[in-house]
Amino acid sequence: MRVRDINKERAIREKALQMMVKEGMDGFSMQKLAKAAAVSPATIYIYFKDKEDLIEQLCIEAGDKMMEITFKGFAPSMSFSEGLRIQWVNRAKYFMKYPDQMHFLEQLRHSPYGEKLSARMGEKFKEILGNFMANAVKNKELVKVPIEVFWSIAFAPLYSLVKFHMLGKSVAGKQFTLTDKLMNETFGLVLKALKP
Question: How far apart are the first and last CA of the chain?
């Protein structure tokens, strides 16, 4: 039996993530991965049982990293504006630092693996955000809305701005860079929409 090499496993994970982001889930195969990572297919199977196992492990790793960064310095008991601002700043940092992971998680959400991703991350997110929202409603800092409506208003503007930044251009095709000023202006509008 061959010995596991942490560096080789990390390289295989990174190459798999890059390939899935670039080619999608349907275009990804272990054979293509082996070729791109310059290893034999047998080497990949030292680390992963099969394609499903590899995708699940990448999902867990990316999801855990996103949650760790998103909730750094955050507590559900914080004031609504402070707690939401921390999440905005943290999410923006995550997206900018780990763009491949962000795209990978988006692909997973809209694939047959989406249910596994939701099961893995959904309950913890719901608990943390549910407590945060309940606290903000109780303190009259947030209008009472379903979590899906909250999510759409609270985070979709940030996600759109980050995507424009990553593309380097706006809807109109003009050059676009996400600045702190623009993020703060957008955040202010989000607060206005969600406060009673």
Answer: 63
Q: How far apart are CA 77 and CA 80, in angstroms?
A: 9
User: Does 123 fall in a domain?
Assistant: yes
Q: Which domain holds residue 182?
A: 72-194
> Which tens digit of pLDDT belongs to each residue from 24-75?
888 889 999 999 998 999 999 999 999 989 998 998 888 889 889 999 999 9
Task: Decide: 85 and 56 in contact? Cβ < 8 Å.
Answer: no
Query: Cα separations (Å) of 170 from 139, 167, 174, 175, 177?
Result: 37, 8, 5, 6, 9
Helix and strand numbers (H, E) in the chain are 10, 0
| 52: nearest Cα among 14, 98, 22, 16 | 16
* Residue 91 token pair: 């999410």
What element of type H or E holds 8?
Answer: helix 6-23
